[in-house]
Amino acid sequence: MSDRQPKVSVILPVYNGQEFILESIQSILNQTYKNIELIIIDDGSIDNTYQIIASQTDPRITIIRQENIGLAKSLNKGIRLAKSSLIARQDADDLSHPERIEKQVRYMNQNITCDLLGTWAKVLEEKNSSFSYLIHPTTSIGCKISLLFD
């Protein structure tokens, strides 16, 4: 790939996520932006999560299976394993819009002083078919404050 399409390392930690993990993985693999690696860290799941992950054959996937060490340590491990300086995060119960990575890379390329980029989210409540929005700050100071308390 050219410099205009840098690799993006997507880190997906999971613990007992059998209900949503396959859809979460597929939402990353089906991105319009294809130059990705997906690092899935099974943090000691005791349900069928690992079997679901292991059934995936896409060569862009790296699977790490470990004893439970928690989310923060799992994320740090994923960052250390990442082959790219562009790192995206995905939770096991997240579904990414198909153009998420493409739009984020484009923004990073157009704003080279940007070090951290987030996204808003639509939160679906399956039980009652309703939804709400998770709206993160959009300014540098807003992000710094949010990182301290959220």
- How many extended strands? 6
Alpha-beta classification: alpha/beta
> What global shape is seen?
globular
Q: What is the helix tally?
A: 5
Order of helix and strand elements from N to C terminus:
EHEHEHEHEEH
Biggest sheet features: 4 strands, parallel
Helix content percent band: 25-40%
Mean model confidence by pLDDT: 90
Rounded to an integer, what's the Rg over CA atoms? 16 Å
β-strand amount: 15-25%
Produce a short descriptive summary.
The protein has 150 residues and is α/β, with parallel strands linked by helices. The chain is 31% helix and 23% strand.
Description:
There is one protein chain. This protein has five helices and six strands; from the N terminus they run E-H-E-H-E-H-E-H-E-E-H. It is an alpha/beta fold and 150 residues long. The strands form two sheets. A four-stranded parallel β-sheet has the order 3-2-1-4, sandwiched between helices.
